[in-house]
Write a structure and sequence with these properties.
With about 240 residues, the protein is α/β, with parallel strands linked by helices. It is built from 10 helices and 7 strands. It is about 45% helix and about 15% strand. A 7-stranded parallel β-sheet has the order 3-2-1-4-5-6-7, sandwiched between helices.
């Protein structure tokens, strides 16, 4: 039986790598994009056997009715909705707050609105068959001091939602979890910059093995393979950070 997944904001942050990983594992994927350019760039890097598994959706639904329709259509086209992943754009909230406080408030309101509406729509579809997973990828805030993007407001909002939604979805056998990624190697840095960054990151572990971002996203396999018996949790993937909360 082919496993199915819906990934939102596939063109932002690490989401395209999560999408690639799902396709490599043989998932049938509906990938939501905000622009056609994002969709074209994502599809252009896929081998033929993965193209047949991927259905791109270029849409920016606003209200609950539009989002519910998009999620329902995705489930129908794939046969069912097994996994819903709320894509994260890895916004640097500190930088946005310092540059434009008004815009910060508007952006956060929009992010939380989308978070609530998409999770509600995904949960509604899965509840009909009483099975499925809702997964919310995050990036740990402890990396703020090493110039990684930090989203403490969004992260804590997601964790509050995960705890509440897990209780609501438990009668329908739907798992709801967050997955917080730890540090990763910045492939854009020069060798000199990387050596300096690595030395700073050694506070997290003794001579840590620092993965590249492609390897890091594979941590989602913990939930894909074993998440059905776990709900309301925040798993940390990365050496030197807590493993579960």
């Amino acid at each position: 039986m082919t496993r199915t997944a819906l990934l939102t904001r596939t063109g932002a942050g690490m989401n395209h790598l999560i999408g690639h990983h799902l396709l490599e594992r043989g998932y049938r994927l509906t990938a939501q994009f905000t622009t056609s350019d994002e969709a074209d760039q994502f599809l252009s890097g896929l081998p033929a056997e993965q193209l047949s598994l991927c259905t791109p959706v270029v849409v920016n639904p606003g209200g609950l009715a539009d989002i519910q329709q998009m999620v329902t259509n995705a489930a129908q086209s794939m046969g069912e909705l097994g996994v819903f992943i709320q894509g994260n754009d890895w916004l640097d909230e500190t930088q946005l707050m310092e540059n434009d406080p008004v815009s910060f408030a508007e952006v956060m309101e929009q992010r939380f609105r989308q978070l609530f509406l998409y999770s509600r729509a995904g949960g509604n579809v899965m509840a009909r068959k009483k099975r499925g997973q809702l997964i919310f990828p995050l990036l740990t805030d402890t990396l703020y001091y090493e110039n990684y993007p930090s989203s403490p407001v969004y992260n804590h909002g997601v964790l509050a939602l995960v705890k509440s939604l897990a209780k609501e979805m438990s009668p329908f056998r739907i798992s709801v979890n967050a997955l917080t990624f730890g540090y990763y190697r910045n492939d854009q840095a020069t060798p000199e910059q990387w050596q300096a960054d690595r030395k700073k990151l050694e506070i997290y572990a003794l001579k840590p093995s620092i993965p590249d971002v492609e390897s890091l996203v594979k941590g989602i396999d913990m939930l894909l393979d074993y998440g059905h018996g776990l709900s309301g949790q925040n798993l940390h993937w990365g050496f030197g950070v807590d493993t579960i909360q």
